[in-house]
Specification:
The complex is a heterodimer. Chain A has 3 helices and 5 strands; from the N terminus they run βαβααβββ. By secondary structure, chain A is an alpha+beta fold. Classes of the chains: A alpha+beta, B mainly beta.
């Protein structure tokens, strides 16, 4: 599914969810509606996570700390690009992938 | 101090249950009142780091568990049906946005005063104090502590904490006055509030701080665990990094009581446990504090030490425990007593064994093994 056009006032964004967060979503993949305020203002990663939290309360705080930083062992991709900025724009049709990144024995 | 009469309070429970919080989840251990046959159940929250799980003494159906995982941030789970089902807090403990501080984990949970059902306190790592007034569903920082102008001085820097992170622990609510609180910090010391957390003052005089240039510091100490004496909240016992101490309020000075421990055993440990009825009786679990601080049973011979005279003298209790090559570590929340008569005494090791005594420490037996690293054992 691709992001919708702006006249619908919401973009539908596909989010891939790691196993460590599927207790919230019940699914490895969900779609969230992110409000679009204006055509020239695409949704941001922060907006996607806020929408995700609206649908699955509590999930954002497990990934993002109270100061707005991505937690150390969480990685966020917008399509193929790794980002730690919640201001990252989400292009139409992009997929957000959340990864639990922890290694060690 | 005269020993109090045994409580006339009826014991309504039909079973004894322990909540065993571990680095990999939560288990429960249940027996009949004879405490002869134990049944292990769980895990719940498998894979979660459960630092503390506590049942509400005001309502046995309510339980809280503080958890996080390797990947995910800290949260609190609540049960309203005695642990059958759990729901995550809508607003877990978190510092104020813009403060620059981030809760790594909620370490300690304390139910509030009997007159304040629904009130809970939480201590976090790094040092933070939080309060819930709705049974743990939502949490707010105790501003009088978290934003106290001297908090940074009291807590020290990031390198002053324990290996697992600096913590607020041992949150004590005076059973006579819900506004009278004590907290302790590793590191930082013990602090007292008489206005429900609005303001705090250090309460560390008499406690040694051998790791500081000035041994008579006002704060900066390393209490490991602090408990009220049973039925006598003017007395507190403290297991500290530098010894075992006791204070009898309104005196403001702690008195060392660990110096009567055998020299070969020492006075270092993490937990201190009080008898459910006798304010003169307490237990500690000594660990090696020499050289590089192994924090294992001295000589590989684990034992509990009991005092029945407020710390003036100590008796070794090790019947049933391994006699050699048992290098146990027992963390500050991982030792507890039940309310039965005679009291049961329980401790869990970081190597995943749960040991118990149903005769106040005279004899022990292993109740469960092969568990993950045990963080906390609480009656449930």
């Amino acid at each position: 599914m691709s992001a919708s056009s702006s006249h619908e006032a919401a973009a539908i964004v596909r989010v891939r969810v790691p196993t460590v967060l599927q207790s919230y979503t019940g699914s490895p993949e969900v779609f969230v509606a992110v409000p679009v305020l204006a055509p020239e203002l695409p949704p941001t990663l922060g907006g996607v996570l806020a929408a995700l939290d609206g649908s699955y309360p509590g999930i954002r705080f497990r990934m993002i700390d109270e100061q707005g930083a991505v937690r150390p062992h969480i990685k966020l991709f917008v399509d193929q690009s790794l980002t730690r900025s919640l201001n990252t724009s989400i292009p139409a049709g992009a997929t957000v992938m959340i990864v639990g990144a922890l290694s060690g024995g | 101090m005269p020993r109090t009469k045994k409580s006339a309070r009826p014991v309504a429970a039909k079973r004894v249950r322990l909540l065993v919080a571990t680095r990999k989840g939560l288990w429960t251990l249940t027996s009949d009142l004879a405490r002869s046959a134990w049944k292990l159940a769980g895990p719940q929250f498998l894979g979660h780091i459960v630092h503390h799980a506590v049942a509400d003494p005001r309502d046995a159906k309510i339980m809280l568990a503080a958890a996080r995982t390797g990947h995910l941030g800290p949260t609190v789970f609540r049960s309203l049906d005695a642990g059958k089902t759990w729901k995550e807090a809508a607003k877990p403990p978190a510092f104020v946005e813009g403060s620059g501080r981030v809760v790594n984990h909620t370490f300690w949970l304390t139910p509030g005063h009997a007159s304040e059902p629904g009130v809970w306190y939480a201590g976090t790592s790094p040092q933070g104090l939080f309060r819930s007034v709705d049974g743990g569903a939502t949490w707010e920082g105790v501003i009088g502590f978290n934003q106290h102008p001297r908090r940074k001085d009291w807590c020290g820097g990031d390198q002053d904490g324990t290996p697992d992170g600096a913590k607020v622990h041992s949150i004590l609510v005076d059973p006579r006055d819900p506004k009278h609180l004590y907290i302790s910090m590793s590191s930082g010391g013990t602090f007292e509030s008489t206005d429900a957390g609005g303001d705090w003052r250090p309460l560390n005089a008499g406690v040694r701080a051998d790791f500081q240039p000035d041994p008579n510091l006002e704060y900066g100490h390393d209490p490991h665990c602090v408990r009220f004496a049973a039925g006598h909240p003017d007395r507190l016992y403290q297991q500290n990094h530098c010894g075992i101490f006791r204070i009898d309020r309104p005196n403001d000075r702690w008195q060392e009581i660990g110096d009567t421990m055998p020299k070969s055993v020492g006075y270092v440990g993490f937990p201190v446990v009080v008898h459910p009825r006798d304010p003169e009786t307490l237990w500690v679990f000594p660990m090696d504090g020499t050289t590089v601080w192994p924090r294992t049973s001295p000589g590989g011979r684990p034992a509990v030490y009991r005092s029945r005279d407020g710390g003036r003298s100590w008796k070794r209790q090790d019947q049933g425990l391994p006699k050699a090559q048992a290098w146990w570590t027992v963390k500050r929340q991982a030792m507890t007593a039940d309310a039965r008569d005679p009291a049961g005494l329980y401790f869990g090791t970081t190597s995943g064994e749960l040991w118990g005594s149903r005769d106040e420490g005279r004899t022990f037996r292993c109740l469960a093994r092969h568990l993950p690293h045990i963080y906390a054992v609480e009656p449930g």
